[in-house]
Each structure stands twice: as structure tokens, then as C-alpha cells.
TrEMBL record:
It holds the Pfam family Phenol_MetA_deg. This is Phenol degradation protein meta. Keywords: Signal. Residues 1-29 form the signal peptide.
């Protein structure tokens, strides 16, 4: 029984655009967009996150997320002069299918499982034209499927103390496949058009009968994109781009208000640890960063139905669009 969300690689779709300065790539007529992949699990999972299902359980988890970005932040955190009045609104509906194998056999002490994620994404962006110049106006891919993700997981039994669980954990290795809608002549696309692999851990610490703290750290590696996207013609010498490696974590703490309701604080922090690349050459000052935080609720309707409502606002943003508001509604149904 998957009582809380498995790793959600494909929700939120907060648009991250690393728009390198032309001087950095002065050999090219137009610099390509190099971004961290869409679909990173930034705040899609939160309370009681280390708990998972029993062998043989099957569940479907649905995520409905909307975000509103109103500024693009540069490497020093200031608003970029490239854009006039940027607005990027993203709505996503993601279906996640989770299955725990019906076996008593364990791997490294954990119960094995698999999951598959299929996202549908709507992009709605607007930019004011110049003046002032340059007044860059990015195009978007509107509505389409995002990249499908698949993973294998291990769920460990809770650590017990005096008859009560005090710690529970899960781990997953996953892959992102370039199956989403992608237009090489469009700046912002639902799909990434490159492969990715990653690993995550999910941990819940039960601090007494009513209070819990959860963490979900991730690492992700992105492979090369051999068809970079841009609404403006790129220099023919540009063969490929590659997003940098990234580490990030979700974090949450909640208090049991009633037997069914929890309230708390949820957040995420992302830090890119290597530079983006064009034709194998690093782009200086291109690493992304973001901190999101806000209140959240968890409601345990019954054994087979759980709900999460999480909200966020972003700060400490570098080299990406800043989301002023994000709302994520999550429901899991366990068969």
C-alpha cells in the first residue's frame, strides 16, 4: 500500500530557463536555451513521505499543480533586463502508477516496487515587447504530454521503538525518457528532449505521537540534447547542449491536529552543482538555485484515500524564473 507519494519526477513543471549572456557564447549568433529538466520533484511530495505500501499493493496517485512565475532572476538574484513583464503560468495533471511486488523476498532488507509517471502539461506565457530593449519574448509549446518517467524502488519496514514506529524510509532509482511534446523552434516545451537518470531517498522521523519530519533528497544527471530548441535561428555550429547535475531536497514537518488531519510547513531547496554546457563547453554563471516554502495540509479520508494540499512561494532564486505562487493538490487511491 503506497500511503504517500513515490518520487514525482514529472509534476509542477516550473519552467527553468538558463539564458546565458551572449558574451559567454560570442562565437554563436544566438545562444541556445539550456535548462534543468522539467518535471523535477520540487515540493510535489511532503508529509509522511517515508511511508510506502505493503507487498502486492497497487495504487494510482494524481497530482494537479498550478504555478505562476512573474520574474526571471539572474546569477546575482536581480531581475533580468532581458524580459519585460514576464508571465509564465504552468498547469499540470500527472498520473502515477505504483506497484509493490507480492513477495516476501527483500533486497538489501527492502521490499521492491516499480512506478510509472505520465504527465500532461499546459504552458501559458506572455512577455511585453520593447521598449525597453532587448525585450526578449519567448514562445511556448502550449499543451502536451511531458516526459514519461519510470523507476524501481525499495521500501523498508518502519524502525520500531516501544511498539511505535520512529523512522521509515524508501529509496528509488529512476529514469526520464524524452517522450514529451517538443518543438525545436519553440523556447518553452512540455518535454525535455533528453534522457535523465537519478536517485532519491525518502525519510520520515516520527518525533512522538503527533509530530513528524520528512525529507526527500535527490540527485539527477541529464544527458545531452542533440536538438536544442530556440524560436530564433541558432548558429549552425551549435551541435548539442547539456544541463548541469543537480541536487535538491523536499522537506516538511507536520502536527496531527485530529486523527485524520495534519497541518504543517513544506518546502524544497535546489542547487545545481555543475555548469550547463554547449558543445561540451561550460557556460559560466549558469547554475540554478531556488528555495520554496509554504503551508500545507494532509487529510486521511480512509485507508484507501489520502489527500495533500501544498502551497509555496519561491526565494533565493538564481538563473531561473521565480514562481510567486504554487499550489499542489495530491490524491492517492490504494486498491
Amino acid at each position: 500500500m503506497k500511503q504517500v507519494g513515490e518520487f514525482l519526477k514529472s509534476v509542477t513543471y516550473k519552467v527553468a530557463l538558463t539564458f546565458a549572456a551572449c558574451a559567454t557564447l560570442n562565437a554563436y549568433a544566438v545562444p541556445p536555451n539550456v535548462t534543468l529538466p522539467n518535471g523535477l520533484d520540487l515540493g510535489s511530495t511532503s508529509f509522511l513521505d517515508g511511508f510506502g505500501g505493503n507487498p502486492g499493493d497497487f495504487a494510482i496517485q494524481s497530482y494537479l499543480t498550478t504555478s505562476h512565475a512573474d520574474a526571471y532572476k539572474t546569477n546575482n538574484g536581480s531581475n533580468s533586463p532581458l524580459f519585460n513583464d514576464p508571465r509564465v503560468n504552468v498547469t499540470s495533471l500527472v498520473e502515477q502508477f505504483l506497484y509493490n511486488f507480492p513477495t516476501t523476498t527483500t533486497v538489501l532488507g527492502g521490499h521492491p516496487g516499480v512506478d510509472l509517471i505520465v504527465p500532461l502539461v499546459n504552458l501559458d506565457s506572455s512577455f511585453s515587447p520593447p521598449p525597453p530593449y532587448p525585450g526578449v519574448m519567448l514562445t511556448n509549446g502550449h499543451t502536451g504530454l511531458g516526459d514519461i518517467n519510470a523507476g524501481v524502488s525499495l521500501q523498508w519496514d518502519p524502525v520500531m521503538m516501544n511498539g511505535h514506529p520512529v523512522f521509515v524510509s524508501r529509496a528509488e532509482v529512476y529514469g526520464s525518457m524524452p517522450t514529451g511534446k517538443y518543438d525545436q523552434s519553440t523556447d518553452l516545451n512540455p518535454g525535455n528532449h533528453f534522457w535523465g537518470v537519478g536517485i532519491m531517498g525518502s525519510f520520515t522521523f516520527l518525533l512522538g505521537p503527533d509530530f513528524e519530519v520528512s525529507l526527500r533528497p535527490h540527485y539527477q544527471y541529464s544527458f545531452k540534447n542533440g536538438s536544442p530548441a530556440s524560436s530564433a535561428p541558432l548558429d549552425p555550429g551549435i551541435n548539442d547542449t547539456q544541463a548541469g547535475q543537480v541536487i535538491y531536497t523536499n522537506f516538511a514537518a507536520s502536527y496531527k491536529v485530529t486523527d485524520k488531519l495534519r497541518a504543517g510547513i513544506n518546502g524544497y531547496f535546489l542547487r545545481q552543482i555543475t555548469d550547463n554546457r554547449v558543445n561540451g563547453s561550460a557556460i559560466a554563471d549558469s547554475r540554478e538555485q531556488v528555495l520554496g516554502i509554504g503551508p500545507g495540509l494532509y487529510y486521511d479520508l480512509r485507508r484507501g484515500d489520502k489527500f495533500w494540499l501544498n502551497t509555496y512561494s519561491e526565494m533565493l532564486v538564481r538563473n531561473r524564473f521565480r514562481n510567486a505562487a504554487i499550489v499542489n493538490l495530491r490524491w492517492i487511491h490504494i486498491f
